[in-house]
Amino acid sequence: MKTLTIAQLLPSLHSGGVEKGTLEVASAIVAAGHQSIVISAGGQLVKTLQQEGSKHVQWDLGKKSPSTLLQAKKLRYWLQDHSIDILHARSRMPAWVAYLAWKKMPVTQRPRFITTVHGLNSVSRYSKVMTAGEEVIAVSSTVKDYILEHYPDVPESKITVIHRGIDPHEFPFGYQPSEEWKQQWYARYPQTRNKWLITLPGRLTRLKGHHDFIDILQQLKQHIPGVHGLIVGEEDTRRRAYAKGLYQQVKNAGLQEFVTFTGYRPDMKEIYALSQVVLSLSGKPESFGRTTVEAISLGKAVIAYDHGGVGETLATLYPQGCVPLNDTHRIVQRCLALYTGEIQPPPYPQTTYLKAAMLEKTLDLYIA
């Protein structure tokens, strides 16, 4: 088998689902005996990427500016000099630069051009570049349907659905946090001890459904003694007013003793494990339900609005958690059913959305 040189492009290597997936694929490329290169503006994950055997090229192709497109010529020369076999773009602006560079190359010298559609982006010519790959990876059936609906000239035959996946060893069924972790947690958040915890993960942005969460908690506290809400996610620096509005809503509702804002936490596995139920209340459909899969893998109940990728994954893994969009009353009913034992958490580990399958299918696409 020929050794391939595969270059992945994305804006940066800070935290995030796209970044995490890029590192996972890069590691699999190396493990399969191929050469992995990642082009980005850098970030905290570069060190890990390099430790796992990939090469990093620091190159900012993600800045949303017409001047970024001028780097297409430089990228074209770079692709030729490094004999790149596969060029895999994961974000819109890098994909534009890659596409323009690739189109100008002699056909016999072009690498295979692959794009991954990670999100349900706004429908526009700018976004359509994510369908320009010779092969297009959709991270869920929801994304594939979105592409076909909004870009009907894209041949269905070139779209491959490769669901995102998690490592069940990283999120083991029935996992319990260590005593040391719990001591540190309760020292910082003593108000959560011996409580029925309901958790909403996600950055403090309007789309994540925090207002619905506060309304749900207001109703639940009348029925569940010791209910307590965790809002786990950092403030969006561009939307501080939104976060302040949430804090004020909690105060106005008299819920200060019932809601804890933790900010960003790197220990989501432990927080999920401590929770009785995890909610997903995004008002806008998401491309994939990673939070849903992680929590269910641990054996935790997830209740979510039934749309987008979250609805897709939940319908497969825990259909009793699916609730019509914006129906907070139904969310409350499902939480009460969990509390009373009328419905149970997932009884066994999920085996549908696995990282190993995602990596195998991606590598199969590379070497096809």
Tags for this entry?
7-stranded parallel beta sheet; Rossmann fold; 6-stranded parallel beta sheet; single chain; alpha/beta; elongated; 2 domains; 368 residues
Helices and strands in order:
Elements: E1 5-9, H1 17-31, E2 35-40, H2 46-51, E3 55-58, H3 66-69, H4 72-81, E4 86-89, H5 92-104, E5 112-117, H6 125-128, E6 135-138, H7 141-150, E7 159-161, H8 179-188, E8 196-201, H9 210-220, E9 227-232, H10 240-252, E10 259-263, H11 268-274, E11 277-280, H12 290-297, E12 301-305, H13 308-317, E13 322-323, H14 328-340, H15 355-367
Helix pairs in contact: 1-15, 4-5, 9-14, 12-13
Walk me through the structure:
The structure is a single chain. The chain has 368 residues and is of the alpha/beta class. It folds into two domains: 5-165 and 354-367, Glycogen Phosphorylase B (Rossmann fold, 3-Layer(aba) Sandwich); 179-340, 3-Layer(aba) Sandwich (Rossmann fold). Helix content is 40%, strand content 16%. It contains 15 helices and 13 strands. Helix 5 (92-104) links the parallel strand 4 (86-89) and strand 5. It is elongated and about 70 Å long.
